[in-house]
Amino acid sequence: MDIQLIKIKQNILSDNDSAAEELRKRLTENHVFMINVMSSPGAGKTTTILQAIKYLKDDYRIAVIEGDIDSMVDSEKISEAGVTAIQIQTGGDCHVDAAMLKLAIDDMDLSEFDIIFIENIGNLVCPAEFDTGAHTKMMILSVPEGDDKVLKYPLMFSVCEALVVNKADTISMFDFDLERLKKNLEKLNPEMDVFYVSSKTGEGIAPWVEWLKEKADRVIGV
Amino acid sequence: MDIQLIKIKQNILSDNDSAAEELRKRLTENHVFMINVMSSPGAGKTTTILQAIKYLKDDYRIAVIEGDIDSMVDSEKISEAGVTAIQIQTGGDCHVDAAMLKLAIDDMDLSEFDIIFIENIGNLVCPAEFDTGAHTKMMILSVPEGDDKVLKYPLMFSVCEALVVNKADTISMFDFDLERLKKNLEKLNPEMDVFYVSSKTGEGIAPWVEWLKEKADRVIGV
Predict the structure, then answer these.
(1) Tell me, what's the pLDDT at B6?
(2) Over the stretch A127-150, which tens digit does the pLDDT of each residue have?
(3) Which of A12, A68, B40, B54 qualifies as a cystine partner to A41, CB 3.0-4.6 A?
(4) In Å, how far are A216, A217, B77, B174 from A56, measured between CA atoms?
(5) Which residues lie closer than 8 Å to A104 by C-beta, 6 or more apart?
(6) Are A124 and A40 in contact (CB under 8 A)?
(7) B113 near B61, Cβ under 8 Å?
């Protein structure tokens, strides 16, 4: 039983990898940059993406693909910001995969977009295992979650190129040490770019958006 | 491929259910109460369990089984409180299941314990699907995560008997409405007992511990 399960899991992951690779190629050929945004539930993915949209929307044509198990809460917020929102409901699945993304992207006219954000399921475990076809993976960790999460969810912190530490405005209420976090990261993922922001107040968002634009422009080719 | 996968998943879940049922029976026969504590990463499972230990440790013999993907951070904190801590490292798995629990419990002398807490992996998705053999399931939601989580992670809110809303001391910093949360729960799980606490200050812990004692005493038979 266990061996069969491991085989199935390997097949799923390798099928997913091929589908993701194909999708990424198609996006690149169409000069569309896609970024996979991951975090725990309630760390502020939607609010952070909304902040980026404010900075980017005059120069880039943006879509947000919302991954949720259920509900349309977040895609409604994105729509209100005047940006295309596409809802994926996984119906119980703990992550979005390349096949789900392909279905969403097949329905889009890629010539109409420059940047696609994927807002993944709120989960620090499963989404880290699945390549979605995005060019770049990033994660958000919020101050209230604590600075020990690097040790507890190492895969997520290993696979992401950037970490946005969010809810900086609440730091006085919590025992959170950014230096301790960075020290743990040094061992696990020393290349990771770390940004310290408050998506509520907008503090610290600009440097992260600059990072995002640099990544995006390489694919968009502007 | 998909059909094969679904079959495997059904087999896994039904094998797990039998193992969980067996384990629960064994615990009951030994008058040991086990509770499965679930939440997002950083919602405060360890701190909340530590608060309960303060109230319970003079009258009950307690063990905490710590589920983590990696690290021993939490079991060290539990040990410092003078309580038996048993670490399960799932090595990537997004939940603990009955087979893992059985391994941990096989190593324990059940005559030495009254209450076992399971601190599950920080994840609002996968742990909701797996019966661990515990008598009761409960969850913690922290104020910073937001009151919309009921809509986004409905299975977790459906399977739990109690909800501890934690980090009440930080409410002034967040847009969190307890009444809105309760309204959403009314549709999904009207039987759920809701406690509003701060595990940092200890505020609101006593009523939740009373609830826990009532559940535990039925199994322990005191």
Answers:
(1) 64
(2) 999 999 999 999 999 999 999 999
(3) B40
(4) 11, 12, 44, 26
(5) A65, A86, A88
(6) yes
(7) yes
Strand order in the sheet with A193-196: A84-89, A62-68, A115-119, A33-39, A136-142, A162-166, A193-196
What ipTM goes with this model?
0.90
User: 């606490």: which residue's tokens?
Assistant: B197
Q: How far is residue B123's CA from residue B40's CA, in Å, rounded to a whole number? A: 5
The tens-digit pLDDT sequence of chain B (222 residues) is 355 556 667 778 889 999 999 999 999 999 999 999 999 999 999 999 999 999 999 999 999 999 999 889 899 999 999 999 999 998 888 999 999 999 999 999 999 999 999 999 999 999 999 999 999 999 999 999 999 999 999 999 999 999 999 999 999 999 999 999 999 999 999 999 999 999 999 999 999 999 999 999 999 996
Interface of A with B (CB under 8 A): 1, 4-5, 8, 11-12, 15, 40-42, 68-71, 73, 92, 94, 121-126, 129, 142, 144-146, 148-149, 151-155, 167, 169-170, 173-174
By the 8 A CB rule, do B116 and B32 touch?
Answer: yes
DSSP H helical segments within B2-125, as ranges?
2-29, 45-56, 73-80, 98-106
Kindly determine whether residue A70 and residue B4, on different chains, have CB atoms separated by under 8 Å: no
Residues 6+ apart with CB under 8 A from B209: B51, B52, B55, B56
Phi, psi of B81 (to 5 degrees): -80, 5
Mutate to test the interface with B, among A1, A76, A124 (most CBs of B within 10 A): A124
Closest CA to A152 of B210, B143, B179, B73: B73
Coil, helix or strand at residue A155: helix
Is the confidence at residue A1, as pLDDT, over 60? no
A-B contacts (CB, under 8 Å): 121
For B170, phi and psi rounded to 5 degrees?
A: -105, 10
Residues in chain A: 222
What's at A159, amino acid-wise? V
Q: Which of B133, B156, B125 is CA-nearest to residue B21?
A: B133
Written as six digits, the tokens of A63 are 């879509």
